[in-house]
Specification:
Layout (H helix, E strand, L loop, with lengths): L13 H7 L5 H10 L7 E5 L7 H4 L5 E6 L2 H13 L5 E5 L12 E7 L7 H11 E12 L8 H13 L16 H6 L7 E12 H9 L13 H15 L4 E14 L4
Parallel strand pairs: 1-2, 1-4, 2-3, 4-5
Antiparallel strand pairs: 5-7, 6-7
Helix pairs in contact: 1-8, 6-9
Protein backbone atom coordinates (compact mmCIF):
# COMPACT_ATOMS: atom_id res chain seq x y z
CA UNK A 1 0.00 0.00 0.00
CA UNK A 2 1.48 3.37 -0.97
CA UNK A 3 2.10 6.27 1.37
CA UNK A 4 2.93 9.87 0.67
CA UNK A 5 3.10 13.22 2.39
CA UNK A 6 0.44 15.89 2.20
CA UNK A 7 -1.88 17.59 4.71
CA UNK A 8 -5.58 17.81 3.89
CA UNK A 9 -8.92 17.15 5.59
CA UNK A 10 -8.62 13.60 4.26
CA UNK A 11 -5.12 12.91 5.55
CA UNK A 12 -4.86 9.28 6.70
CA UNK A 13 -8.27 8.32 5.25
CA UNK A 14 -7.09 7.19 1.80
CA UNK A 15 -6.39 3.51 2.70
CA UNK A 16 -9.93 3.20 4.10
CA UNK A 17 -11.73 5.20 1.42
CA UNK A 18 -11.71 2.73 -1.47
CA UNK A 19 -12.11 -0.38 0.69
CA UNK A 20 -14.88 0.75 3.01
CA UNK A 21 -16.89 3.63 1.53
CA UNK A 22 -20.11 2.43 -0.07
CA UNK A 23 -19.37 2.21 -3.80
CA UNK A 24 -21.41 4.10 -6.34
CA UNK A 25 -23.92 1.89 -8.11
CA UNK A 26 -22.42 0.49 -11.31
CA UNK A 27 -25.68 1.44 -13.01
CA UNK A 28 -24.89 5.08 -12.23
CA UNK A 29 -21.51 4.86 -13.99
CA UNK A 30 -23.13 3.05 -16.91
CA UNK A 31 -25.75 5.80 -17.13
CA UNK A 32 -23.08 8.51 -17.41
CA UNK A 33 -21.35 6.55 -20.17
CA UNK A 34 -24.62 6.14 -22.06
CA UNK A 35 -25.90 9.68 -21.49
CA UNK A 36 -22.76 11.29 -22.89
CA UNK A 37 -22.17 8.59 -25.53
CA UNK A 38 -18.64 7.97 -24.25
CA UNK A 39 -16.27 6.05 -26.51
CA UNK A 40 -12.62 5.07 -26.57
CA UNK A 41 -11.65 8.13 -28.61
CA UNK A 42 -12.91 10.50 -25.90
CA UNK A 43 -11.42 11.93 -22.70
CA UNK A 44 -12.98 12.37 -19.27
CA UNK A 45 -12.08 14.64 -16.35
CA UNK A 46 -12.72 13.55 -12.75
CA UNK A 47 -12.40 16.36 -10.20
CA UNK A 48 -11.98 15.59 -6.51
CA UNK A 49 -11.24 12.06 -7.66
CA UNK A 50 -10.14 10.61 -4.31
CA UNK A 51 -8.68 7.13 -4.91
CA UNK A 52 -10.35 6.83 -8.30
CA UNK A 53 -13.83 5.79 -7.22
CA UNK A 54 -15.25 7.14 -10.49
CA UNK A 55 -12.08 7.58 -12.55
CA UNK A 56 -11.08 3.91 -12.56
CA UNK A 57 -14.46 2.44 -13.61
CA UNK A 58 -14.87 5.27 -16.13
CA UNK A 59 -11.49 4.39 -17.67
CA UNK A 60 -13.03 1.27 -19.22
CA UNK A 61 -15.29 3.44 -21.39
CA UNK A 62 -12.96 6.21 -22.62
CA UNK A 63 -9.46 6.55 -23.99
CA UNK A 64 -8.15 8.69 -21.14
CA UNK A 65 -9.27 9.90 -17.72
CA UNK A 66 -7.54 12.83 -16.04
CA UNK A 67 -8.08 12.37 -12.30
CA UNK A 68 -7.53 15.46 -10.13
CA UNK A 69 -7.35 15.70 -6.34
CA UNK A 70 -5.58 18.06 -3.89
CA UNK A 71 -4.71 15.23 -1.48
CA UNK A 72 -1.38 13.48 -2.13
CA UNK A 73 -2.42 10.33 -0.28
CA UNK A 74 -5.58 10.00 -2.37
CA UNK A 75 -3.59 10.40 -5.59
CA UNK A 76 -1.04 7.80 -4.45
CA UNK A 77 -3.78 5.37 -3.45
CA UNK A 78 -5.60 5.90 -6.73
CA UNK A 79 -2.46 5.37 -8.77
CA UNK A 80 -1.75 2.15 -6.88
CA UNK A 81 -5.32 0.89 -7.38
CA UNK A 82 -5.29 1.72 -11.09
CA UNK A 83 -1.99 -0.06 -11.62
CA UNK A 84 -3.19 -3.10 -9.67
CA UNK A 85 -6.21 -3.30 -11.98
CA UNK A 86 -4.22 -2.78 -15.15
CA UNK A 87 -5.70 0.63 -15.90
CA UNK A 88 -2.96 2.51 -17.70
CA UNK A 89 -5.17 5.24 -19.16
CA UNK A 90 -5.81 7.14 -15.92
CA UNK A 91 -3.50 10.12 -15.46
CA UNK A 92 -3.27 11.46 -11.93
CA UNK A 93 -2.88 15.16 -11.17
CA UNK A 94 -2.21 16.57 -7.70
CA UNK A 95 -4.13 19.84 -7.85
CA UNK A 96 -7.14 21.74 -6.64
CA UNK A 97 -9.99 21.71 -9.13
CA UNK A 98 -9.82 25.49 -9.29
CA UNK A 99 -6.17 25.33 -10.39
CA UNK A 100 -6.44 22.98 -13.36
CA UNK A 101 -5.04 24.44 -16.57
CA UNK A 102 -7.55 25.57 -19.17
CA UNK A 103 -5.27 23.92 -21.72
CA UNK A 104 -5.90 20.46 -20.25
CA UNK A 105 -9.05 19.91 -22.31
CA UNK A 106 -11.09 19.18 -24.21
CA UNK A 107 -13.11 16.57 -22.32
CA UNK A 108 -16.39 14.97 -23.29
CA UNK A 109 -17.49 14.73 -19.67
CA UNK A 110 -16.41 16.03 -16.28
CA UNK A 111 -17.42 14.08 -13.19
CA UNK A 112 -17.38 15.20 -9.56
CA UNK A 113 -18.13 12.54 -6.98
CA UNK A 114 -19.13 13.74 -3.51
CA UNK A 115 -16.61 16.60 -3.70
CA UNK A 116 -18.32 19.63 -5.25
CA UNK A 117 -19.08 21.05 -1.79
CA UNK A 118 -15.32 21.39 -1.14
CA UNK A 119 -14.84 23.57 -4.22
CA UNK A 120 -15.50 27.14 -5.28
CA UNK A 121 -18.41 25.93 -7.35
CA UNK A 122 -18.88 29.07 -9.45
CA UNK A 123 -15.20 29.19 -10.38
CA UNK A 124 -15.09 25.48 -11.22
CA UNK A 125 -18.18 25.74 -13.44
CA UNK A 126 -16.63 28.66 -15.32
CA UNK A 127 -13.54 26.55 -16.00
CA UNK A 128 -15.55 23.52 -17.01
CA UNK A 129 -17.39 25.61 -19.60
CA UNK A 130 -14.03 25.93 -21.37
CA UNK A 131 -12.66 22.46 -20.63
CA UNK A 132 -15.74 20.49 -21.73
CA UNK A 133 -16.28 20.02 -25.45
CA UNK A 134 -19.48 21.08 -27.16
CA UNK A 135 -21.95 18.22 -26.87
CA UNK A 136 -20.49 17.09 -23.56
CA UNK A 137 -21.38 17.95 -20.01
CA UNK A 138 -21.05 17.54 -16.26
CA UNK A 139 -22.10 14.66 -14.01
CA UNK A 140 -22.31 15.21 -10.25
CA UNK A 141 -22.38 11.93 -8.33
CA UNK A 142 -23.46 11.80 -4.70
CA UNK A 143 -25.20 9.59 -2.17
CA UNK A 144 -28.89 10.01 -2.99
CA UNK A 145 -31.01 12.33 -0.91
CA UNK A 146 -33.44 9.50 -0.15
CA UNK A 147 -30.80 7.17 1.25
CA UNK A 148 -32.11 5.80 4.56
CA UNK A 149 -29.88 5.97 7.60
CA UNK A 150 -28.85 2.46 8.54
CA UNK A 151 -29.22 1.17 12.07
CA UNK A 152 -25.46 1.14 12.64
CA UNK A 153 -24.93 4.78 11.65
CA UNK A 154 -26.55 6.58 14.61
CA UNK A 155 -24.82 4.16 16.97
CA UNK A 156 -21.44 4.84 15.38
CA UNK A 157 -22.10 8.59 15.36
CA UNK A 158 -22.89 8.58 19.08
CA UNK A 159 -19.72 6.69 19.96
CA UNK A 160 -17.57 8.87 17.69
CA UNK A 161 -19.04 11.94 19.42
CA UNK A 162 -18.27 10.41 22.83
CA UNK A 163 -14.58 10.08 21.93
CA UNK A 164 -14.09 13.12 19.68
CA UNK A 165 -16.90 15.49 20.59
CA UNK A 166 -19.57 16.69 18.13
CA UNK A 167 -18.26 16.42 14.59
CA UNK A 168 -19.30 17.82 11.23
CA UNK A 169 -18.40 15.72 8.23
CA UNK A 170 -17.56 18.64 5.96
CA UNK A 171 -16.26 21.54 8.07
CA UNK A 172 -14.72 23.30 5.06
CA UNK A 173 -17.67 22.95 2.71
CA UNK A 174 -20.15 25.69 1.84
CA UNK A 175 -22.45 25.88 4.88
CA UNK A 176 -24.24 28.92 3.48
CA UNK A 177 -25.17 26.94 0.35
CA UNK A 178 -25.22 23.20 1.11
CA UNK A 179 -26.94 22.19 -2.14
CA UNK A 180 -25.29 22.22 -5.56
CA UNK A 181 -28.31 23.25 -7.59
CA UNK A 182 -28.10 27.04 -6.95
CA UNK A 183 -24.60 27.14 -8.45
CA UNK A 184 -25.82 25.25 -11.52
CA UNK A 185 -28.76 27.64 -11.90
CA UNK A 186 -26.40 30.64 -11.71
CA UNK A 187 -24.14 29.13 -14.34
CA UNK A 188 -24.50 30.36 -17.90
CA UNK A 189 -23.47 26.95 -19.24
CA UNK A 190 -24.94 24.25 -16.96
CA UNK A 191 -28.28 25.69 -15.81
CA UNK A 192 -30.38 22.90 -17.36
CA UNK A 193 -29.97 19.69 -15.37
CA UNK A 194 -31.79 16.54 -14.32
CA UNK A 195 -31.38 14.25 -11.30
CA UNK A 196 -31.42 10.46 -11.43
CA UNK A 197 -31.34 7.86 -8.63
CA UNK A 198 -29.79 4.38 -8.74
CA UNK A 199 -30.45 2.04 -5.79
CA UNK A 200 -28.15 -0.75 -4.70
CA UNK A 201 -27.58 -2.85 -1.59
CA UNK A 202 -24.35 -3.86 0.12
CA UNK A 203 -23.71 -5.97 3.21
CA UNK A 204 -21.30 -4.73 5.86
CA UNK A 205 -19.56 -6.67 8.59
CA UNK A 206 -18.15 -5.00 11.68
CA UNK A 207 -14.69 -4.53 10.19
CA UNK A 208 -16.26 -2.74 7.23
CA UNK A 209 -18.19 -0.41 9.52
CA UNK A 210 -15.05 0.51 11.47
CA UNK A 211 -13.25 1.15 8.18
CA UNK A 212 -16.12 3.30 6.95
CA UNK A 213 -15.90 5.45 10.09
CA UNK A 214 -12.16 5.88 9.54
CA UNK A 215 -12.72 6.86 5.89
CA UNK A 216 -14.45 10.08 6.99
CA UNK A 217 -12.27 13.16 7.41
CA UNK A 218 -13.85 14.15 10.74
CA UNK A 219 -13.33 10.69 12.25
CA UNK A 220 -10.00 9.63 10.73
CA UNK A 221 -8.21 7.07 12.87
CA UNK A 222 -5.35 9.37 14.00
CA UNK A 223 -7.90 11.73 15.58
CA UNK A 224 -8.60 9.05 18.20
CA UNK A 225 -4.94 8.89 19.20
CA UNK A 226 -4.30 6.35 21.95
CA UNK A 227 -8.06 5.83 22.32
CA UNK A 228 -8.52 4.18 18.91
CA UNK A 229 -8.60 0.64 20.32
CA UNK A 230 -11.00 1.66 23.08
CA UNK A 231 -13.25 3.27 20.47
CA UNK A 232 -13.22 0.13 18.34
CA UNK A 233 -13.97 -2.09 21.34
CA UNK A 234 -16.96 0.02 22.36
CA UNK A 235 -18.26 0.24 18.79
CA UNK A 236 -17.96 -3.53 18.28
CA UNK A 237 -19.88 -4.17 21.51
CA UNK A 238 -22.65 -1.78 20.46
CA UNK A 239 -22.91 -3.25 16.97
CA UNK A 240 -23.13 -6.81 18.28
CA UNK A 241 -25.94 -5.73 20.59
CA UNK A 242 -27.81 -4.52 17.49
CA UNK A 243 -27.10 -7.63 15.46
CA UNK A 244 -25.30 -10.57 17.10
CA UNK A 245 -24.37 -11.88 13.65
CA UNK A 246 -22.47 -8.65 12.98
CA UNK A 247 -23.91 -8.20 9.47
CA UNK A 248 -25.84 -5.16 8.28
CA UNK A 249 -27.57 -4.60 4.95
CA UNK A 250 -27.01 -1.08 3.66
CA UNK A 251 -29.35 0.38 1.06
CA UNK A 252 -27.41 2.89 -1.03
CA UNK A 253 -28.95 5.47 -3.35
CA UNK A 254 -26.49 6.91 -5.85
CA UNK A 255 -27.65 10.25 -7.24
CA UNK A 256 -26.38 11.46 -10.61
CA UNK A 257 -27.06 15.05 -11.64
CA UNK A 258 -26.66 15.40 -15.40
CA UNK A 259 -25.89 18.96 -16.56
CA UNK A 260 -25.15 19.12 -20.29
CA UNK A 261 -23.05 22.04 -21.45
CA UNK A 262 -25.23 24.60 -23.21
CA UNK A 263 -24.55 24.88 -26.92
CA UNK A 264 -22.68 27.99 -27.97
Amino acid sequence: MPTSSGISPFAHTAPYYDRFRAPYAQAAIDFIVERYSLTKDMRALDLGCGPGTIAIPLSYAVGEVVAVDPDADMIAQGRWLAESRGRQNVHWLLSRAESISLGAGPFQVATIGQAFHWMDRDEVLQKLAILIADGGGLALVNPGKRRPQESWEPVADQIVAKFLGPRTRHPKSNPQEPEHEPALVRSEWFSTFTSHEFPSTITRDINSIIGCVYSISSSARPLFGDNAKAFETELIKALLSLNPAGCFNEHVETEVVIAPKRAR
